[in-house]
Protein: MYB transcription factor
Organism: Narcissus tazetta
Amino acid sequence: MGRSPCCEKAHTNKGAWTKEEDERLIAHIKAHGEGCWRSLPKAAGLLRCGKSCRLRWINYLRPDLKRGNFTEEEDGLIIKLHSLLGNKWSLIAARLPGRTDNEIKNYWNTHIRRKLLSHGVDPNTHRPTAGGVSCNMTTISFEKKEEEKSSSEDSTSWSNQQYRVPDLNLDLRISPPSQTESVKREVALFGSGFWDMRRTCLK
């Protein structure tokens, strides 16, 4: 068995809400609270369905609604929540104060979804699409430059030139080693005769 209808469709108004209907709904909720949406239309003197009253209040008339465009912070939060919760708009709206589930759903379909697709991201899986990542291949070509050939006159002049290699003096001369500091000290202490005698013994 299904749920019984909340009101008689034949005796309810449809279409856009008038300013007078909005004022009646606001005044009744301020005085009595939201209460039961099934009985609210009759108590407020409205020829509207209870569901229509609820949606009108939640989406347009309640005072804590946030007006204006979505901010970048809200965009990022919606994308993050959608990647975790999917299309559960009521749960997403519960984490964005002042925004309704219907408003977020419409904003997703008209703005964020297209924005993600334009950036190569699948709005359902939140992963890059097949053609989303473009690889820009840069090809660098190297051209080998040919060396300029010298003219025949230049080559002839170069070939006719004679080069003389300088003579290298390869004579080696062995000279006695210079006196070291220790030898100089011994000569200073014992005289040159001591060093001559020592050198004779070493021969």
Summary: Residues 101-118 form the longest helix (18 residues). The radius of gyration is 51 Å. DSSP finds nine helices and no strands in the chain. Residues 133-152, 155-166 have pLDDT under 50 and may be disordered.
